[in-house]
Amino acid sequence: MKWALLLAAMMTMHAGAAESCLIVYGQGRNLGEAPQNEAWDRINARFNGAVTERLRGAGLDAQPLMLKLGETDLAAAVGLLTERAAAAGCSRVVDTAVFADTDGALIVRLRVHPLLGGIGPTATGEEPPRIGAPLYTAQSQFDFNRRTLERLNFPALAGEMVGGYLEQVGVTPPAAAASPSQSRAAPPAAPASAAGSR
């Protein structure tokens, strides 16, 4: 009986953490020429927006934070993220990314990280917040070509990936979207290469 009560309490705490504010952070990975960077920015903004919408549809306080591909100062990016999270009282970061890897594959990835130290239940007030190891990762891989980019349905991909996270933390996911391979939105201009992937 004691173990059952303890398990129930732990599950309640875990679900409660998931329901706090979430920063939905997005940035491209393939640094190149200005037109390519702009194309990747548009693609990543579509996925980030779809993830934010699905989280909000499940009743979570999701706040998007998009950085342009040309913003390469990692320390400044982390500082902005943790500052925004602290101001809003967020305890987790949802990292969204769409990029081409060095093997020529198109990767659509979602990761959920805890914010440790200065924010949330682990706050001590004596150290700046830091991003912890991923609590959840979901990733889909496709051939990197214009046809793939034209057919990708980011709302559906976001629904699948966010749904897996919500299920993990005990939150009822919103209704599923259409198939990921059938995009209903006009596609952005296709990036030219995978050069500069981070």
From TrEMBL:
Stretches for region Disordered: 174-198
Its signal peptide is 1-17
UniProt keyword list: Signal
Superkingdom of origin organism: Bacteria
Q: Under what name is this protein listed?
A: Uncharacterized protein
The record lists the organism as: Roseateles agri
Its ancestry begins with: Bacteria, Pseudomonadati, Pseudomonadota, Betaproteobacteria, Burkholderiales
